[in-house]
Structures are given as structure tokens and as C-alpha cells.
């Protein structure tokens, strides 16, 4: 299965919204093979990464969290791999192509 990524827009300043999204993602973590959840309080977004079907997980989160908690869920068309701890980046380039992707 491919790596999936979801960017969930939630008001993390609201203590009830924050608690609800944490509870929902905690319950779905094992079922949907969620590997990493990042909470960006400054930008009010939650980034979910793992080996899951993004559309299926998006629908499940909307049903469980409700429309008042989740403002929007985006599925980016690319996956950014953070740099390794030793520094440097990995690049994925196709042969005979001018396009490279940071891995």
C-alpha cells in the first residue's frame, strides 16, 4: 500500500476540538496503520502520515469528529520526506528526466 498523507485543518486553540481530534486519531491509529501524527498548533493543522487509503481515512475522520471540529481535510499530491538526522536530503529522479523530487 502507498504512503498516505492528510492535512486536517482544526482549531487547535479550542481545547474541546483539540481533545476530540486527538481522541479520534488515537482510536483510528492502529486500524488504519497511521505511522505519524504531527500537531501544528501555530497553523491550526494536523498532519497524518502512514500506509492508509487517504480517501477512506478522510471519510472516517469526518464521521467520527464531526463537521464542527474538522474545518477541512486536504490530500496533497506529493509526499515530503523530512531530512535524515545526519543532514542532507534524498532525491528521487527519473532517468532521462529534468524533474527531481525531494525524498
From TrEMBL:
Residues 3-74 form the HMA domain. GO terms for biological process: regulation of defense response to fungus. Transmembrane segments: none annotated. GO terms for molecular function: metal ion binding. This is HMA domain-containing protein.
